[in-house]
Amino acid sequence: MKQLSTKVTSNAHGQDSSYFLGWEEYEKNPYDEIKNPNGIIQMGLAENQLCFDLIETWLAKNPDAAGLKKDGQSIFKELALFQDYHGLPEFKKALAEFMEEIRGNRVTFDPRKIVLAAGSTSANETLMFCLAEPGEAFLLPTPYYPGFDRDLKWRTGAEIVPIHCSSSNGFQITESALQQAYQQAQKLDLNVKGILVTNPSNPLGTMLTRRELNLLVDFITSKNIHLISDEIYSGTVFGFEQFVSVMDVLKDKKLENTEVSKRVHVVYSLSKDLGLPGFRVGAIYSNDEMVVSAATKMSSFGLVSSQTQYLLSALLSDKKFTGTYLNENKKRLKIRQRQLVSGLEAAGVTCLKSNAGLFCWVDMRHLLDTNTFEAELELWKKIVYEVKLNISPGSSCHCTEPGWFRVCFANMSEETLDLAMKRLKEYVESTDSNRLISKSSHERIKSLRKRTVSNWVFRVSWTDRVPDER
Amino acid sequence: MGSLIKSGGVSGAILSRIATNDQHGENSEYFDGWKAYDKDPFHLSRNPHGIIQMGLAENQLCLDLIKDWIKENPKASVCTPEGVYQFSDIANFQDYHGLKEFRQAIANFMGKARGGRVTFDPERIVMSGGATGANETIMFCLADPGDVFLVPSPYYAAFDRDLRWRTGVEIVPVHCSSSNNFKLTVEAVEWAYKKAVQSNKNVKGLLFTNPSNPLGTILDKDTLKNLVRFVTRNNIHLVVDEIYAATVFAGENFASVAEVVKDLDSSEVNVDLIHIVYSLSKDMGLPGFRVGIVYSYNDSVVSCARKMSSFGLVSSQTQFMLASMLSDDSFVDNFLMESSKRLGIRHGVFTLGLKKADINCLISTAGLFVWMDLRHLLRVRNSFESEIELWHIIIDKVKLNVSPGSSFQCTEPGWFRVCFANMDDDTLHVALRRIQDFVSKNSNKTAEKASDNDKLIQNNNAKKQKWKQSNLRLSFRRLYEDGLSSPGIMSPHSPLLRT
């Protein structure tokens, strides 16, 4: 008799993928400015380390929250005993308001429709348990966050069917790609329960355009399926455009309080916007009472620590803090992203034009020996072991085109980023000097840049007119 | 309650079966007591006639010690001026291995809670979302949908949710009875195992809580050894939920399955089959902090459970604080000693008070509750209907929320779990007084009304005892006939978690 469950022996947790192997290499030889200056620089981790000082300053000014006190009185006992899966009401209220603030207060979030979870990892899994039977499928645009294979499929038994997006249009979702994915699922005899998107996108760093959002809402309406919008990066938008949430689109299409709105669910977390992944704060927002009810019960398996809820309810209720924080966060992310982009350019490398997220989607197709995933993996190994940068290969994100890499920029100091770019430049130059630096490769780079610019123009034409950021 | 078909939907937007079935167990009538409590909660000064909550297995007896420690150790918090220099590193830390210092501190605490008779390997400590998360995770690791775990009854009501709901695993109870004080025997397990296998069930293992919830009893070491031998012989798993390990009253003995693993020869125990679930919710009284632990002697299970812990990691803020607290040996030693002392005293006061009302409890040496014998008060012996009726009387007339044995799958009507560690001394005395008043009032009133229906008794002592009991039954009968209504409409409040 088989001793352990099939989940133990399957690799549906996805952790044999290169995404995680790069981490392992990094663990063995991590860069440290002083102690290990030749170590591997971690650029595969989408963390936001740019604004801790703001939170630390707030903590210094707010000893009550820090000391588990309310109005000077200790509430330790109440917090120690508080395990109600409805969550601390003050916290949910503050979280709802924070989510509204991120969306320019254009839409409202009802705290009673929020379900807390242990990070968005848990939130996404819980939603799958609520919406899909084992063997049913969700459509996801590629490239997508590698952790979804684990979060959405592993213990739930749900399936993912990719919506293939390509560089030809900046990896935007098209109607034909959607239809194709839906049909593919049917060919595989999989019942499609919904679509899940991350907006802003991981790994692309771009926001879904209104056109794409409208397309998605129309599609789920016609097919009578769900739409999950993981908006974990909503507070990392640093471009001139504002973030358009699926909730904005529901409002603009006058679909609020309709049956369709019950099938649109938002996932959120404080891991990226506030840079607090250790605190495990995730949330599901749903207009469907049954989903809220079931997910609330399921949250028993991963509640947010009460001391964390209390601390964050105080932090997020301070509107002066949240306003300042969101602005400063944007500013610093923008500067840091620019630093990465220029550094890449100096190495003759371009990336997808982005205005959100903690990473860039970098185009290294011209560095591949052949246009294959084997070549991508070879290049990746060189970058990890020789250039000593841990970045994430596009194949780990299920990208259909070899040569793209996700490179994070918000989890290190300016100096470290500088060093990383230097290393990359040296590597590219040394490989280039082994081939002839011909005019044609210069032209290739120029034309790539031009294509990227025209993608940008294509994208911009659907939104408000904005100046070219470059 | 089947799945809902949304308007116009064919397949599409239906929710999953899990989302729409009742397998979470929260629609059961057993939450009536909670709802009544929510509507009329006792408070010593503000609502002295309200319902006293005795259905919640919380440990509130030693929170003062923890509170004081936190006050004296501001560095243990990443938010205080003394500790904030660690804030960014800790807030950023989401490694599912957990903070090393945290794992070491937990291993240290677990060892001390077992009298230092065993040590735990920090590398085998895996985090989870409370014991709730730990139990579910271990099921995901050991069993596939449709597989079976044997669970001795009476058992913690929420196991139906934790072990079965999302995992698809089935529970087959191993019924224990009062005839031998509800002791779990190897014979009973063997019998249940054979029966399950004969009905073509795929039995993956045995799971039980030790010390027991709801019984408060500790399994003797010999039986534990024999159970370990049994699972090894049959190649099935053993999961022991030791969440109440440190609630053992002062002076009593608790043998963890870890000790047995240490003592037995490798030919008698296949350690790959042995797993422990733990938590700080009961021993330390910190259910809000969500600290659950999966501890397995099986490397594959440790590895898998660790990956799964992503779905319920302990907040790094909490890990950091507890790492500091639980590596403070003088604090831990004092805490464990004080806690078991206070629990023992509280248990003694409560059971003595109950005796004055001629109410007996199963003899227990651990836990945050007693297993109370009210069989003599049932209107109709051996009737679960009578148990529920009696339960409603206790809620409505005695104004105590207690948990009826049937909610723990007990096969004999008339037993109730009553918690004693979630209130202060004054409240406990109010509860005892209410019980004593109620019992004496009703036996006095009906002193003249001895019914012919009473059975005759053999000797004088028994006669006196039985007379009191039968009169009590009579008095309850009158209450039954008074037309007791059930405690009102279902309130929208949800019950607190750990019953």
Q: How would you characterize this protein structure?
A:
The complex is a heterodimer of chains A (470) and B (499). Chain A is of the alpha/beta class. Chain A is built from 17 helices and 15 strands. Chain A folds into 2 domains: 145 residues, Aspartate Aminotransferase, domain 1 (Alpha-Beta Complex); 261 residues, Aspartate Aminotransferase, domain 2 (3-Layer(aba) Sandwich). The C terminus of chain A is likely disordered. Chain B is an alpha/beta fold. In chain B, 40% of the residues lie in helices and 11% in strands. In chain B, the strands form 3 sheets. Chain B has a 7-stranded mixed beta sheet, with helices on both faces. In chain B, strands 9-10-13-12 form a 4-stranded antiparallel beta sheet. At the A-B interface, helix 1, helix 3, helix 4, helix 5 and helix 7 of A face helix 1, helix 3, helix 4, helix 6 and helix 11 of B.
Short description, anyone?
Chain A: Pathway: Alkene biosynthesis; ethylene biosynthesis via S-adenosyl-L-methionine; ethylene from S-adenosyl-L-methionine: step 1/2. The complex is a heterodimer of chains A (about 475) and B (about 500). With about 475 residues, chain A is of the alpha/beta class.
